[in-house]
Amino acid sequence: MKRARQALRRLYWIDAALQRQAIPNAVDLAAELGASSGTIHSDIARLRERYKAPVIFDPSLGGYYYGKAFTPALPDLPAEDALALADVLGRRGPLAGSALQDSLNRLAARLRALLPGAAPISPAVEVAPAPPAPPRRPRTHRRLGARVRAHRDRAIGPVTLQLRFDRSVVAELLDEGFLRRKDVQFLTDGGIEASVKAEDPEAVLLDLLRWAPHFEIAHPAWVRRRLPMLLHRLLRYWEPRRRRRPR
What is the pLDDT of residue 204? Predict the structure, then answer.
């Protein structure tokens, strides 16, 4: 599963390079991705054969490009991977028209579906930040409460999550190997229930967002309550970027 995710990240990376018309070659892509040139050739062949991408190699330019406007319909990455990749690729050029931008748009839609009261995603604009509020010294009992909560969070070990999925995503869950057939219980409505042991519950929640809103956290309740906080934090990624006014 880890190898398949790495291969998918490479496809997103290659597509982003082709979309910004960087005319990349296999040697450059291999150096950027920490892979061999042969692996990159296999990735490009996969784009052509599986996703019908019009990738053309031009010997005079020494690199690849799309022969026409095209965006491959790549499977979604986990939210954590997609946002991390967007941070890296966004520094290299715009993501408009890329498979990664499409995936981010789908992720935003899933977050809004889980948080119906969330504000709509706005296009990024640069505005001056409001002046910071003067710092307030917290009361002693609040500081003590924060220390207690921090200690409690550090003390959390492996957590077993009880998850339920509706029938629309069962085949995908089993095909991708997120759940093993022997570990799931089929429900009378066609859905499934499974127990997942997690060292980091938040990482599992990020992974689950690929199947939102078709899942439910049955247990434990504190993980279910943490999900909205995580979603609000992720939605800040689409908030307008703020920049200081030049002095």
Answer: 82
Interacting residues of 193 by C-beta distance below 8 A, sequence separation 6+: 162, 163, 164, 165, 184, 185, 187, 218
**Which residue shows structure tokens 């706005």?**
122
- As assigned by CATH, the class of the 2-113 domain is mainly alpha
Nearest to 194 by CA among 216, 162, 223: 162
Contact 206, 77 (CB under 8 A): no
- What are 2-36's pLDDT values in tens digits? 788 899 999 999 999 999 988 999 999 999 999 99
Strand segments, DSSP code E, in 137-214 are: 159-165, 184-186, 192-198
> What's the CA gap between 119 and 239, in Å, rounded?
10
**CATH 1.10.10, the chain: domain bounds:** 2-113
Residue 193 in contact with residue 218, Cβ under 8 Å? yes
Residue 126 contacts residue 240 (beta carbons within 8 Å): yes
Measured in degrees and rounded to the nearest 5, phi and psi for residue 221 equal -65, -35
DSSP result, 104-147:
HHHHHHHHHHH-TTSPPPPPP--BPPPPPPPP-PPPHHHHHHHH
Angle among Cα 210, 214, 216 to the nearest 5 degrees reads 105
Which residue from 209, 197, 201 is spatially nearest to 81, judged by alpha carbons?
209
Question: Cα separation of 179 and 173, whole Å?
Answer: 6
**How many Å is the maximal CA-CA distance in the chain?**
70
Write down the residue that tokens 């499974």 correspond to: 194
pTM: 0.65
219: enclosing H helix or E strand: strand 215-219
